[in-house]
Amino acid sequence: MAHSFWLLFLLLSSATACDQCVHQSKAAYFSSDSPLSSGACGYGSLALSLGGGRLAAGVSSLFKQGAGCGACFQIRCKDPKLCSSRGTKVTLTDLNRNKQTDFVLSSRAFMAMANQGMAREVLKLGVVDVEYKRIPCEYKNQNLAVRVEESSQKPHYLAIKLLYQGGQTEVVAIDVAQVGSSNWSFMSRNYGAVWDTSKVPDGALQFRFVVTSGYDGKWIWAKSVLPADWKTGVVYDSGVQITDIAQEGCSPCDAGNWR
């Protein structure tokens, strides 16, 4: 019943989502990558493996109380003398609490928007006008992964972090059960990309995820993820890939002239 409500709520609430539209805003940058890798999504040092160091903090409408963690965006600054028309791709790893800009980028991502030889000039600006749109994340030959957090305490408490979520999607609910069992327990979003439960089934564990993309939503079932002797700090392959692309359910919008 709980997940039926989740699906209905999310399908209705995302019916006006225009993730593929181009949005106008501003972007600043952090001189150090540390705030982004240790940010509100909880990726830690693993953040650098998500977007090649091209990371971003996004405002609350993009962060979506953690559901936006791992989302990918194409972003470009609007000064044609300094910046390329292609821009760069970034991965959202933190919440941007600065309401003056939609994004705060890693310095690597900020410089990647520049034309050849202009990176330092772009950095000197500090803040630039940008346009951006959400794009599918692509992790070639990489399945969705589950990392067991160090706070987990077998057999009473399990906390996991989702990594390498592909497509243009958001995981909005997770259930866990013993492999071969239909007795599912729901997990709660602790923060960012971290989910937890105090009702940990015995034995090897399977997961099912409620995934939304635009106005569409579905279940994805990972039938065998954690072994019975799962350990903290270890990243486990889910055996499934998420590649869905958002289906727009809104009025026609400017998709931009992106190459």
Short description:
The protein has 259 residues and is an alpha+beta fold.
Which key terms come to mind for this protein?
elongated, 259 residues, alpha+beta, 2 domains, Barwin-like endoglucanases, six-stranded mixed β-barrel, 14 strands, eight-stranded antiparallel β-sheet, single chain, Immunoglobulin-like, 14% helix
Description:
With 259 residues, the protein is of the alpha+beta class. The chain has 2 domains: 23-134, RlpA-like domain (Barwin-like endoglucanases); 144-240, Expansin, cellulose-binding-like domain (Immunoglobulin-like, Sandwich). 14% of the residues lie in helices and 35% in strands. The protein contains 6 helices and 14 strands. The protein has helices spanning 2-13, 34-37, 48-51, 60-63, 107-112, 119-125; strands at 23-30, 55-58, 72-77, 88-95, 103-106, 128-135, 145-148, 158-163, 170-178, 185-191, 194-197, 205-213, 216-226, 235-237. β9 and β10 (185-191) form a beta hairpin. The termini are far apart. Residues 4-16 have low confidence and may be disordered.
